[in-house]
From TrEMBL:
This is Ribosome hibernation promoting factor. Belongs to the HPF/YfiA ribosome-associated protein family. Long HPF subfamily. The keyword Transferase does not apply. Associates exclusively with 100S ribosomes, which are dimers of 70S ribosomes. Interacts with 100S ribosomes. It comes from Thioclava dalianensis. Required for dimerization of active 70S ribosomes into 100S ribosomes in stationary phase; 100S ribosomes are translationally inactive and sometimes present during exponential growth. The keyword Secreted does not apply. InterPro entries: HPF/YfiA_ribosome-assoc (IPR050574), HPF_long/plastid (IPR034694), RHF-like (IPR036567), RHF/RaiA (IPR003489), Ribosom_S30AE_C (IPR032528), Ribosom_S30AE_C_sf (IPR038416). Residues 129-183 form the Sigma 54 modulation/S30EA ribosomal protein C-terminal domain. It is found in: Cytoplasm. One of its GO terms (molecular function) is ribosomal small subunit binding. Pfam families: Ribosom_S30AE_C, Ribosomal_S30AE.
């Protein structure tokens, strides 16, 4: 597994890097046999250290965790424990489905646009009918089953996931609802 360990305005020593590699590889190897790479970033906010970890798996899924603590090693341990919990749940779900994906997840490129928030103007005239684009990037849309999409959304701790449904090829969305349940949007069934 390839590691990219960095610090935002922090000097990450060799001892911490070795500790991170050893502990994270032990955690990931316990649940997943083929992780490809991991990015770990340390930063500091006020008196707290923050550790953010992203592990890419060979199946195409991504696990993300974040930990906070007043000491840098404790922040990493908090992050590692969350990653452990996510991977354990993911493996249990895979086992419950009695199905392993034989082929890696397919991704399709898609445009991702960040739109500026509406600002109140002092005049009664609208500034423009079209929203202002702040950023334009490219993102990846995976081809997954609905169950895999829910797992990916939960493992990456995202509020929603856009994916291509592997059964019919249409674009679908799963999202976390305010009541704690997961919503599934399938435009194909809207007619």
């Amino acid at each position: 597994m390839r590691y990219q360990i960095s610090g935002k305005q922090l000097d990450i020593g060799e001892a911490l890097q070795t500790h991170v590699k050893t502990e994270l590889s032990e955690t990931v190897d316990k649940y997943m046999q083929r992780p490809t790479d991991a990015q770990i970033t340390f930063s500091k906010h006020a008196h707290e250290f923050i550790c953010e970890a992203t592990v890419h798996l060979s199946t195409g899924l991504t696990a993300t965790a974040k930990g906070h603590a007043t000491e840098i090693y404790s922040a990493f341990e908090s992050c590692r424990e969350k990653m452990d919990k996510q991977l354990r749940r993911h493996k249990r779900r895979l086992k419950d489905h009695h199905r392993d994906r034989a082929e890696p997840v397919e991704f399709e490129a898609a445009g991702l646009y960040v739109l500026a928030a509406e600002q109140e103007s002092e005049s009664d005239e609208p500034a423009s009918e079209a929203p202002m684009i702040v950023a334009e990037m490219e993102t990846q849309v995976p081809t997954l089953s609905v169950g895999e999409a829910v797992m990916q959304m939960e493992i990456s701790d995202a509020p929603l996931l856009v994916f291509r449904n592997e059964k019919h090829g249409g674009v679908n969305v799963v999202h976390r609802r305010d009541d704690g349940n997961v919503g599934w949007i399938d435009p194909r069934h809207s007619k």
